[in-house]
């Protein structure tokens, strides 16, 4: 990973949690309320 | 199954459960020869685990529901640990989880981030390791796979499956990762530590014909030397997918054999009318256990 993080880059924190770079700082991935019902791990229909 | 998993089938609750049961009985009736059925009922009380050896990866064997006029003990996978094996598969009794690498694509669902955090933290605590490696590019992933030093490969992501010919693909930062890209790894058996590969995405154990044989993630990773592969046969909702992984790793790290760990994880996510608990399929030796002391 480059020295300058890009938006969406991920890393582990010292405590072992995934952190995401939002453009200004690293932090935990923020859960977005799901309006579309069940989220499948599938991109076949995209 | 896709529509049942996403709640769009029109079936719900007990009706969906009945549909699943009848689908399982139908698979049993149509796919299992009569002589095998008779042997199954004769030997059932002595069976400790079930290994399905097949070169035809297409049927969803985990859906099998043995039924006779006098006997009904439920789905096969709720009766015994059930694992698949591919022909020529090497026997790996100790599954390597170290060093751990996680594939977390940029479009991964929110639950996938929580899943990777949980597994990484659990491995750190149980094995005394540092953080695993996060991989988001095809190039870096293939370098790792072909290095001969890869341990656990856990994918928490979306999988695209094109049954009309393209097969599976995982979108990564520098292009799609496909089973064909494991050809060199299979030739050199580069997964030399016999690691676990867990592709926790939709239909990640699906296969399509490539030239002369079925090709998919399961056969590709097992040919490359994986000690075990866990994937799915149809679309899985992200939340139970995370819960399955959580229960599976907890059981493995508590010392459960692989087949039993899969069975425990299925039970943990079983809900009326939701087929996700049957979607998971595992390849390898059901008696294999995690190699807690494996290096580095």
UniProtKB/TrEMBL annotation, chain A:
<protein>
    <submittedName>
        <fullName>Uncharacterized protein</fullName>
    </submittedName>
</protein>
Automatic annotation (TrEMBL), chain B:
<dbReference type="InterPro" id="IPR024983">
    <property type="entry name" value="CHAT_dom"/>
</dbReference>
<feature type="domain" description="CHAT">
    <location>
        <begin position="26"/>
        <end position="274"/>
    </location>
</feature>
<dbReference type="Pfam" id="PF12770">
    <property type="entry name" value="CHAT"/>
</dbReference>
<protein>
    <recommendedName>
        <fullName>CHAT domain-containing protein</fullName>
    </recommendedName>
</protein>
């Amino acid at each position: 990973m480059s020295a300058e993080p890009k938006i969406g880059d991920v890393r582990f924190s010292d405590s072992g949690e995934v952190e995401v770079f939002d453009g200004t700082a690293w932090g935990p991935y923020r859960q977005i309320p799901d309006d579309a019902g069940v989220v499948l791990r599938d991109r076949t229909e995209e | 199954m896709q529509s049942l998993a996403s709640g769009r089938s029109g079936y719900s609750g007990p009706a969906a459960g009945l549909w699943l049961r009848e689908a399982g009985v139908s698979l049993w009736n149509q796919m299992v020869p009569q002589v095998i059925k008779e042997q199954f009922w004769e030997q059932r009380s002595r069976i400790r685990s079930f290994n399905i050896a097949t070169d035809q990866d297409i049927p969803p064997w985990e859906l099998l529901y043995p039924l006779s006029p006098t006997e009904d003990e439920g789905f096969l996978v709720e009766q015994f640990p059930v694992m698949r094996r591919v022909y020529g598969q090497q026997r790996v009794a100790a599954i390597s989880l170290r060093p751990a690498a996680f594939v977390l694509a940029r479009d991964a669902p929110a639950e996938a981030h929580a899943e990777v955090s949980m597994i990484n933290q659990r491995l750190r605590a149980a094995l005394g390791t540092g953080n695993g490696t996060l991989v988001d590019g095809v190039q870096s992933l293939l370098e790792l796979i072909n290095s001969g030093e890869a341990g656990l490969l856990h994918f928490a992501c979306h999988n695209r499956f094109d049954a009309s010919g393209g097969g599976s693909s995982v979108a990564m930062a520098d292009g799609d990762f496909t089973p064909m890209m494991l050809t060199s790894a299979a030739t050199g058996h580069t997964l030399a530590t016999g690691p676990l590969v867990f592709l926790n995405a939709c239909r990640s154990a699906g296969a399509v014909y490539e030239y002369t044989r079925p090709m998919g993630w399961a056969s590709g990773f097992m040919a490359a030397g994986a000690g075990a592969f866990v994937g799915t046969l149809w679309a899985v909702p992200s939340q139970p997918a995370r819960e399955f992984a959580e229960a599976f790793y907890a059981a493995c790290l508590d010392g459960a054999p692989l087949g039993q760990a899969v069975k425990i994880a299925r039970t943990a996510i079983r809900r009326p009318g939701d087929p996700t608990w049957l979607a998971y399929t595992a390849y390898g030796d059901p008696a294999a256990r995690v190699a807690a002391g494996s290096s580095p």
